Every structure is written in C-alpha cells, then in structure tokens.
C-alpha cells in the first residue's frame, strides 16, 4: 500500500514537471505572436526614444536613485509627453561632447584644428519625477518644439485584475520570509514599477500597495524569483544583464503561477517580450534556470507539487 502511494506521488510530480516545461514553451510562442502586433510596434517606437546609457552612468543613476526605471533629460521628457515636477532633484550623470580648438605653430604661424573630448555634468530625471502632459503649453513648446500630450504606450504588459483565490501572495511571502527576506506593501511613485527587490544587502522586497490582489500575487512571485536568482549578483553585472534578469524573474512568475492554476499571460508575456526585446532566443537560453526556480517555488507553496528529489534538484 505504501508503494502505491509513492508511485502516485512520483507520477503526480512527473506530470507537474511536464506542465512546467509546457508552460515555459508557451512563453516563446506567445512572445512571437505579440511581436507581430501593432501594439508591439508602438512599444518599440516608444522604447527607441530612450538614450542607451553607459555602464558607468547606469551605476551613477542606480547609486543616486535605486528604484529608477526609465530615465531621460528634462526636454526629452517633454518630447515623450511628460513634464518634470517642480522641485524634483536631478540625477547627475556624465555626458560626452567634443569641441574644436586651434593650435598655432610657433615657428610657422600655421593654425591647426583638433578636437578634444569633454565630459560635462548632465541632469536627468526618472519617470517617477514626472507627470503626464494633458495640455501642451507655449512654455513647453518653447523648451522643446516636439513636446506632446502623454499617450501611454510604455508597455505591452497589461495589469492583472481580480482576486488571488489560490492565496499565492501570502504563501509566497511566508516562503521567502523564511529565507531571511522581509516583504512589505508600500506606496511606490508612479513609475510603472509594481515592486522591487533590494540589492544593497538589506534583503527587502517591496510590493506596491495599490495593486490588485491578482497583480500583487504575480508580482511577489517575480520579486521572489529575483531574490532567489539574483541577490548575489554584483550590481555592475546586474545592470549590464538586467534584461536577462527580468526575463528570468517574470518567466519564473508565469510558470510558477501556471503550476498553481493561475494564468498571468496578460501581464507576463508583454513584460518578457519587452525585456527580451522580442528575441525568443533569450527565453530559450534561460529555460533551465527558470524551470528550476519555478519548481522550487511551486514545491514550497504546494508540497504535493514535486517529490523530495525534485525539490533538491531545483534548489
């Protein structure tokens, strides 16, 4: 009789492993489908308007404002349909420019021009320091003739609505708290950021206080994946490979939620596609780590999901 129970549990675990693999496979298919839509084209048009900052400047930005998500200069924000609020403190970075100087040969009197590099201090602002433009004023047009009214095309990820019937949020909080992390619900300024995991050694996870129950459940899975997979990554490495890290964390959230009977594709697929830049190879390359972590979380939230052996393999 005991043997029958063991076989049943192993069979159930095998079925769950197969489910996890199938769920991950659907990410590639759904991302590929999304990248053929007008919504994706609009997202790419928006994304290409942001400057690609150097690693050194990214480090400066993170040091001054760790929760930064999207950064641009004052006039650039006007072009993107947002204006910086009065009194906001600028994030200082190093710019690059060059200027011509003329050298005169003391013997011949001939002039020769050459360029020298300069590195001026520039001011940029995070999206959390801005508000949407509802009406373009003459002053805004004077600052930037391309100033426009805000149209939200920033993300193809759609916020989840509804409840958390599987109680994923509280179960995930209990699990990651037992791993030495603290989880809190806090107000996060308007940035499109639903949560974040600290990288300064404080081991904190913050989830936005105003999320729906369904979105909060998905988000805590995402941040738990960051905590398990990326907490020990050097800050410079994390910044350099942030796209891959975000693909991994959201893929884990999607697969783990799916194993628990919850479909987060309305949000997850667009989010993954955005950070992967539509490249499905990134999704395939991260599959092994994603599946291991998703199974680890699912096993903790639902002990019947995997066998003891599977749990050890996933850890």
From TrEMBL:
Species annotation: Gordonia terrae
GO molecular function annotation: single-stranded DNA binding
Database matches in InterPro entries: ArdC_N, IrrE_HExxH
Stretches assigned to the N-terminal domain: 26-125
IrrE N-terminal-like domain segment(s): 179-253
Pfam families registered for this protein in UniProt: ArdcN, Peptidase_M78
UniProt name for this protein: Uncharacterized protein
